[in-house]
Amino acid sequence: MRINTIINRFILKEMFSPFIINLFFFMFVFLMARILDITNLIVNYKISVIYILLLLAYSIPDFMVFVIPMAVMMSVLLTFLKLSNDNEILALKASGVSLYRMIVPVLFFCLAGCLLTVFMTVWGMPWGRTAFKEMTVRVATSNLNAGIQERKFNDRFKGVMLYVGNVDKTDGVLRDVFIEDSRAKSSLATSIVAPEGKLFGNPDELIFQLRLFNGIINQVDLKNRSVHTISFDTYDLKLDLEGAASRRKKVSRGRKEMSLGELRRYIHQSNPEDDHYYKMLLELHRKFSIPFACLALGILAVPLGIQSQKRQASSGLVTGLIFFLLYYILLSAGLIFGETGIYPPLIGMWAPNVILGGIGIYLLVRVAGDRPIQITLFQHYKS
């Protein structure tokens, strides 16, 4: 019993360091995908460093859903690759420790990764996505004047082209304002000119209001070839920040922002004919199927690590990444076909785990029986 405890601690300790390194590495890679959106906010709205750090923090739970399973798989793969290269697997087998006994700490390690991923899918991701969306709207609302570029045409508002000669940084007054409003479905082309204006935001409705003073409205009827000119002292124009109000749906929050209770209530109150029914059902299964990928990919990583020879270590790592890519492709296919109802969401979300887990168990049995497996994808190029 004491020997088994020592072996468990030894293997767990060997897996912990690669896990932390892989976790931060893949986290950095996924953060780079968010940098473009955040850079756009920095350029357009001149947001402070604190807002940038908050937006990055809110982004972390969203991609940690995939980062944790990747880190678990790669840490198990690297650990058994190292043990195999150092002949420690051979030494443990010679002392009477079977491969099935060595996999016990791996299962505990994968289970811990599974629970951590469940926390991210059930609580972390909805919180992070909701907070990110609210922060984006808050930044856009409070810093909208800073985002309007002087002496340039601004097309950030849906259906409206805005030109401002000068923006007063102290009181937020817009000067020398020209607007082309193309939102009307009729043949009327509307342009507005005003010496001054001021922008007001309503973060709850995601709609902005531009109040213009002492201006002129020109309406050109393209069909009848006539022009109407209207003078005004004060004129209020509603503006939709590009895509903001148009994204508001009957469902108050997107499916990835919903809690388990909200998803279950929506599914219970809907019927299969509803356009969102299968999407919500897929999201419910997705919250638990992705965490269990830690187990499926972790088991698969054990034989991949043991069978990779020292001169083929890089190929073993590439093979591990290819298997994770295969998992992601299967999961994406499950989402696509599950949304259309081609096959049940249960199958779409859990099939990748069953397939890769089954491959892992098959390879594990072969390796435990000292039967070789061909995992080096580039072996025929080297021979």
Structural features, described:
The chain has eleven helices and six strands. The protein is an alpha+beta fold and 383 residues long. The chain has two domains: 2-140 and 253-377, no CATH class; 157-240, no CATH class. A six-stranded antiparallel beta sheet has the order 1-2-3-4-5-6. Helix 7 (277-289) packs antiparallel against helix 9, helix 7 (277-289) runs parallel beside helix 10 (345-368) and helix 9 (313-340) packs antiparallel against helix 10. Residues 244-252 and 376-383 have low confidence and may be disordered.
Number of H- or I-type helical stretches: 11
- Largest sheet: number of strands, sense, barrel closure: 6 strands, antiparallel
Terminal-residue CA separation: 45 Å
Number of domains: 2
Query: Spatial order of the strands in the main sheet?
Result: 1-2-3-4-5-6
- Give the SSE order as H and E letters: HHHHHEEEEEEHHHHHH
Radius of gyration: 29 Å
Task: Identify low-pLDDT runs.
Answer: 244-252, 376-383
* Average pLDDT taken over every residue: 84
Characterize the overall form.
elongated
Number of strands: 6
Structural class comes to alpha+beta
Oligomeric status:
single chain
Strand content: 15-25%
**Helix proportion of residues, in percent?**
55-70%
Topology:
Elements: H1 2-45, H2 49-85, H3 88-94, H4 99-142, H5 144-147, E1 153-154, E2 160-167, E3 173-181, E4 188-202, E5 207-221, E6 226-240, H6 260-269, H7 277-289, H8 293-307, H9 313-340, H10 345-368, H11 379-382
Antiparallel strand pairs: 1-2, 2-3, 3-4, 4-5, 5-6
